[in-house]
Design goal:
Layout lengths: L2 H15 L5 E8 L4 E6 L10 H15 L5 H4 L5 E4 L4 E7 L4 E7 L5 H13 L3
Antiparallel strand pairs: 1-2, 1-5, 3-4, 4-5
């Protein structure tokens, strides 16, 4: 799959995720922390309005999600979730391609149900 085709696939999947009720943001971040596909749901204003802070956070999420030092003893990371007062952040590493799916959702979201939904959406290749 070419890079262009791959990113179109990711763009489509992120768009599908932002149609979900509680999801505010769904984006693919490369290992440098740059957004390469996806983004905020239409009509959503980011809670962090400083672009540099947002980019720093995405870089941090990417590095944390792609860490492998405990993979041998504990198994690979399936996803990382952080519940904050104003939102839930979930990252799903794609270790082979060295990218991360980052999602922000409303604090009321059921993290485990959302994780299962993400797996379902990304498992369908059409």
């Amino acid at each position: 799959m070419s890079d262009t085709t791959q990113y179109q696939f990711y763009e489509s999947k992120c768009s599908q995720l932002t149609q979900e009720k509680d999801i505010r943001f769904a984006g693919i971040i490369n290992e440098s922390g740059k957004l390469v596909a996806g983004g905020f749901k239409k009509g959503i204003t980011p809670l962090e309005n400083n672009e540099n802070k947002l980019e720093d956070f995405m870089e941090f999420a990417s590095k944390l999600s792609l860490r492998k030092e405990f993979d041998k003893s504990l198994g690979p990371i399936n996803y990382l979730a952080a519940r904050r007062d104003k939102l839930v952040l979930i990252s799903f590493p794609f270790p082979i391609s060295r990218i991360v799916l980052l999602i922000s959702a409303e604090p009321s979201v059921d993290i485990e149900s959302l994780a299962k939904r993400v797996v379902t959406i990304f498992s369908v290749t059409t």
